[in-house]
Design brief:
single chain; 202 residues; mainly alpha; 8 helices
């Protein structure tokens, strides 16, 4: 049993290798996202690496991350800068408007931005296109695949809601977010997006 546990081709060894890769990607993503303006390029690099991993082509993640970051820097950054003002406007409205119709509009606007973000950076990582076209395609694909997007919302919403509701969970999950949380959720996100990409490439 112990021999099987430490077998380099065994389930345990492969699981630990996967966790190590998630930690590496998560740290790289967080470091490259510290200047908020580079969040888009960092997200595209993260999804580019995850796409390679899920297709079995992930030999060297560190150089792959920075190569993908550089390749998508302009497109993903501009796409992020298109989306960011809408996010900021909706957040500011929610903070300063106590109630009423405008608050409902701001909440809906944030949900639409989140729907776009679900597909935007995976699209930037996989396809070459103009930034505005990526944003438009992300919106249209999100609307056309709403059940799948809602499933992704649930995956992301559960840990976020847990953090907001329970302080102890926030402490534990904050450590997990720093170590591997964002990369792991992005992995699940990409796994759910492959059928959409397969349709586009059929």
């Amino acid at each position: 049993m112990l021999k099987g546990l430490f077998d380099p081709d065994g389930v345990f060894a492969r699981a630990m290798d996967w966790v190590g890769r998630m930690v590496l990607l998560n740290v790289l993503f967080l470091l490259c996202s510290i200047p908020v303006i580079t969040f888009g390029a960092s997200s595209a690099a993260l999804y580019g690496c995850i796409q390679k991993m899920q297709k079995g082509d992930d030999n060297k993640l560190l150089p792959l991350f920075f190569k993908t970051f550089a390749a998508n820097f302009k497109t993903a950054t501009l796409a992020w800068l298109i989306l960011l003002p809408f996010v900021a406007l909706c957040v500011v409205d929610l903070l300063i408007v106590p109630s009423g119709l405008w608050r409902m509009i701001a909440t809906l606007g944030l949900q639409v931005c989140a729907m776009v973000a679900v597909l935007l950076f995976p699209l930037c990582a996989r396809y070459e296109n103009r930034s505005a076209t990526h944003v438009k395609n992300a919106f249209l694909l999100a609307i056309g695949n709403l059940p799948r997007v809602l499933a992704i919302f649930v995956i992301w919403g559960i840990p976020i809601a847990a953090c907001l509701l329970w302080g102890t969970v926030l402490y534990v999950l904050s450590i997990m977010w720093v170590l591997f949380g964002y990369a792991m959720l992005s992995w699940l996100n990409q796994a759910l997006l492959w059928p959409i990409f397969d349709k586009l490439e059929a």
